[in-house]
Amino acid sequence: MSGRSSRRSSKRSLGEATPRSAGAILARSLPVWLVLVGLALASCALAYLPMGRWNMAVSLGIAAAKMLLIGLFFMHLRRPDPLLRLAGGAWLLWVGFLAALVFADQATRAPLTQPEHMEDRTMEPPETAGGRSGF
Amino acid sequence: MSGIAFWPPAASEVAAGVDAIVIAMLAISGAIVLLVAALLLGFAIRYRRGSAARRGELPELIQKEVEVGWTAATAFLAMFLFAWASIAVLGGQRGDPDALEIHILARQWMWKARHPDGAREIDALHLPRGEPVRLVMRSEDVIHSFYVPSFRLKQDVLPGRMTQLSLKPTQTGEFPLFCAEYCGTLHSRMLGKVVVMEPEDYARWRAAQPQADDLAREGRALFESVGCSGCHAPASRVHAPELRGLYGRQVALADGSVRRADEAYLRDSILQPRRDIAAGYEPVMPPFAGILGEGELQAILAYLMSMPARGASPGEPRNMSSEP
Amino acid sequence: MSELAAGRVRPAEGPAEPWPDNYLTAEQGLGSWLLTTDHKRIALLYMATLLAFFVIGGFGAVMIRLELFTPEQDLMTADAYNRMFTLHGTVMVWFFLVPSIPNTLGNFLLPLMIGARDLAFPRVNLLSWYLFVGAGLLLVVALVAGGVDTGWTFYTPFSTMFSNGYVLLAALAVILAGFSSIATGLNFIATVHLLRAPGMHWFRLPLLVWALYGTSVVMVLATPVLAASLLLIVAERAFGLPVFDPAQGGDPLLFQHLFWFYSHPAVYIMILPSFGVISEIVTCFARRRIFGYTFMVYAILWIAVVGFLVWGHHMFVSGQSLFTSLVFSFLSFVIAVPSAIKVFNWTFTLYRGQITFEAPMLYALGFIGLFTLGGLTGLFLAAIPIDVHVTDTYFVVAHFHFIMVGGAVTALYGGLSFWWPKITGRLYPEGWARFAAILMFFGFAFTFFPMFVMGFAGMPRRYAAYPPEFQIWHVMSSCGAVLLAAAYLLPMAYLTFSLFRGARATDDPWDATGLEWRTASPPPRGNFGVLPVVAEGPYLYHPEAEGPHHSEREPHQNQGGNL
Amino acid sequence: MSGGALREPWHSLRRQREAASFGMWLFLASEALLFGGLILAFIATRWFHPAAFAAAGREADIVYGTANTLLLLTSSLTMAVGAQAARAELPRLAGRALGLTLALGLAFLCLKGLEWRADLAKGLWPGPGFALEQPAARIAFAFYWLLTGLHGLHLLGGLSAIAWLAGQAVLGRRPWRSPAFEAAALYWHLIDVVWMFLYPLLYLDGRAA
């Protein structure tokens, strides 16, 4: 197959228009990067805000948002290509299967079967008892 | 048991229920196997090449209805069996709070049992017939599994966590006990026996066991050397809970709930004292997790469980706690 | 019979060189095999490798059955016995059963069946074989160095802190074999999606292709979790990172969750391809369209997806929560439905057929019988109260052998016989093959049925010595194993014989439909001279003498002809 | 490997390109489940020991962690730019962007190495002489070493692939429009995404205390 026809076909294979110039490429990618950096810094800052158990939830939520941005804009999931969406979505569903059932077990396991060396369930720091080294 | 093993005796309360489901499922699967075999052989013979049987296309409608029919039938059958089995298992889960609490410690490759007053045995377990029993089990090393076929019961025994098994023996006799989870070299030698006796025989057996066992004595020494007695002794200036007669009692906790001071509670309170704080006390006790070894902990627990209520002298076994 | 056989054999008065330039003779020399990217040759490479592992794993089985002939532990030490069943399990699961049908028959047939010249990524296919061989060598090193004694399940903390076997090597071998399996899986998925011949719609795909597709989905999505769980073991054993150490608060059940998230779907990796094979064989020898094609397809997909949600039924007694056990029990009952659909559909495919009983058909009928038993005993194991009693006993051993050996291995032999003329261009001796098929069914039943009984009576698995009241069952089992071993060796003998002395097969010796039969036997390097265009669904079989040959008939015409 | 040319089973280059991208996505799905499984194991263990894991999180070096997060995010940008430029056949931009990606990836690894050295000096290897008191903190750090190590290995693999592809392109042995650049970019983004989750789990836990 000749190069010319392949170039034509490569253009056709994209749902989103492929940027052809340096300017267009940068204009499309830089804002995404700025948002990503902003999210990363926000996540770092928010981690110092005492929110109890919500700290980790917020951090992971921001991580998921970053994943979504990278997936949509850098990994071209915006392309209306069913194959890519299939592959890109399947793993999420399957990780969901794994997580849902593992946590279902852990959340409902008999109290006796929880580990013996169990610390406080709450996210509060351990009370500083005399003689214990702090962290 | 001798001769040929075929259908193990049903010696626990749940066993009869399990056997009923097994028999029902055997009947159902037998019927299905017969059906499939009859259809396979029947079709194979009738529609062998060259036979005179009528051939031709099936009407599309019938195909679909047959298909939907047996899909639905299988689904209903599966749901029925699920419901039956689950109701049975939920019924068996109701633990009796007054059950006889026996502690099982599994290790490569033996079973150790300890009865409420400290009577201990290895690779054997004596049980009274007709009384609810709660086995609280843990392992010292790897995963084992406590399996008594005649009880139709099995429970893995985990290291670092406890599991429990509630049962009520219904038949006297001697039943084999197996380790069912592969646990290393001598896995197949990790056998024992469960001896179910009439309650009065059981009481007699237990009374005949060496009393005030060494474990509790050892525990008493540890109780002092590790420093428990510094606070928990009656003369101590620190405001600490009274431990004599604690085992088996209901304890009011700081969060308003009430818990029975079973062995699990005592154990947790030593390892992680800040978890369940007894009402009216400051959380000042240091955790002993990582300080006490499993053996030492067992000794201290044995001592605590053998401490009589106020009045009697410590170190002497007290009568079985809460049995009516 | 004789006139049928006449249609299979190439006429002697044909051209002097009846074999055209096929994939076997296209290139010569060892290098042309070891560096080949031809899916057909890679399938043969896999076949040779798997044969070696089947022999190694079978050796383990023989030693186990010998030891269990008597209740005492007399033939070998307890440690040797533990190493033997670990060898048997590890080799058979990861180095034989998981790759068995997908990597041999699947690799050979998938492109042929959908009308493609090769798999989507031929070099990835070769890489997959090299990964597999590398993994196999690692495992052999572990076995020669002294073996592994953890059982194939690698349960922690035994495998991390107590085992004195070569767990590290074995775990790495399994991880590597897993990547080989992932490579095959993604190759198959991409091939089915992107390389179907013109006109080959999704609902014109033969069921074997559907089954391989479902299997591949499971391979790609489950295997990495196995790698993760074994990596945690590797971390703990190699670097002392205490992930599962109970003394630090590690959770032994976490490993089991991760492990069974792969290892239960792995059962479907083993059995789904056999479903496909059986569907091909039953339709061909009953001369009928498969009964309920769409239901069969949905059953495969249903099993592939819901198969991921039932792993917890391996953990009913492990200390997992009762609530979760109930959920898993429910889903395990749910997955029984598609399996039942398959059995009934195969049975009804026979209805109004023109059945002949060549060896592949005998294997297939045996498969249906054994799989039905294996599947029904699966219901016992899905019910919590019964599972509590029989899990970790010989009942479970019998159950999964019925599925994985009575099912998958029988299907492998059946499929191998069915496509042998296509693969080699030679016909195997039919009489011997029928004898082997029948012997395999009875040998198998004789070996494994007693295990149900002794399992229910309480015989725990993985015991080198056992109470004498179980001996009678073990003796029966060991005797059956002799028959079974003979039945497994016999096809190896007659298939090898046929390579040299077998009659030369025609392109379509069974008068089967399916694109793989529309090319030469053996196929040329590029599979098809002219790539086929598909105009009809699969399995449009026509009863003999009731119309023209299937290839000359209008699609969607009634099969009976004389209605 | 003369990319761009039609390869054996394919009849059109478009289909082949589609296959390269789909195949890589399938591989990514499987990688995602590998890391997903490990991260799930981490979260599941943390569930039982939140305080110990928080203590472990406080010990991890937030400066290195955050710097590396920013480096990796930026490398994702340069990689995306590089892949798009390669596809648009803008060799100068593509070369520079890929070079920058390599540099950022190497910088990440160097920082990671320095961080690991500092961690070892602080006694954060969960062996004898481990710095933290809670037993479960050892598990937290076991995961820390395993996850960062495995991630580092993947990053190293990604770097080698990019270096090899870019080298070939610069030498003229591979056309810039080869689908391989896009596949490599997908892989690189996955490495980035994995780190996006490791960062909060390993570094941000317990900071609010």
Please provide a written account of the structure.
- The complex is a heterotetramer of chains A (about 140), B (about 325), C (about 575) and D (about 210).
- Chain A is mainly α.
- Chain A has helices at about 5-10, 20-45, 55-75, 80-110.
- Chain A has 2 domains: about 1-80, no CATH class; about 80-110.
- In chain A, helix 2 (about 20-45) runs antiparallel to helix 3.
- Chain A is flat and about 65 Å long.
- Chain B has 3 domains: about 15-45 and about 60-90, no CATH class; about 100-210, Immunoglobulin-like; about 215-305, Orthogonal Bundle (Cytochrome Bc1 Complex, Chain D, domain 2).
- In chain B, about 35% of the residues lie in helices and about 20% in strands.
- Chain B has helices spanning about 15-45, 60-90, 200-210, 215-225, 230, 265-270, 295-305, and strands spanning about 100-105, 110-115, 120, 125-130, 135-140, 145-150, 155, 165, 175-180, 190-195, 250, 260.
- In chain B, the strands form 3 sheets. A 5-stranded mixed β-sheet of chain B has the order 3-2-1-5-8, with no helix packed on it.
- In chain B, helix 1 runs antiparallel to helix 2 (about 60-90) and helix 4 (about 215-225) packs across helix 7 (about 295-305).
- Helix content of chain C is about 65%, strand content about 0%.
- Chain C has 17 helices and no strands.
- In chain C, helix 9 (about 250-285) packs antiparallel against helix 13 (about 360-380).
- Chain D has a single domain (about 15-205), classed as Up-down Bundle (Four Helix Bundle (Hemerythrin (Met), subunit A)), CATH 1.20.120.80.
- Chain D has helices at about 15-50, 50-60, 60-85, 90-120, 135-170, 180-205.
- The model of chain D has no long low-confidence stretch (mean pLDDT about 90).
- Chains in contact: A-B, A-C, A-D, B-C, C-D.
- At the B-C interface, helix 1, helix 2, strand 7 and strand 9 of B face helix 4, helix 6, helix 9, helix 11 and helix 12 of C.
- Chain A: Pfam families: COX4_pro (PF03626).
- Chain A: It is found in: Cell membrane.
- Chain A: InterPro entries: Caa3_sub_IV (IPR011743), Cyt_c_oxidase_su4_prok (IPR005171).
- Chain A: One of its GO terms (cellular component) is plasma membrane.
- Chain A: Keywords: Cell membrane, Membrane, Transmembrane, Transmembrane helix.
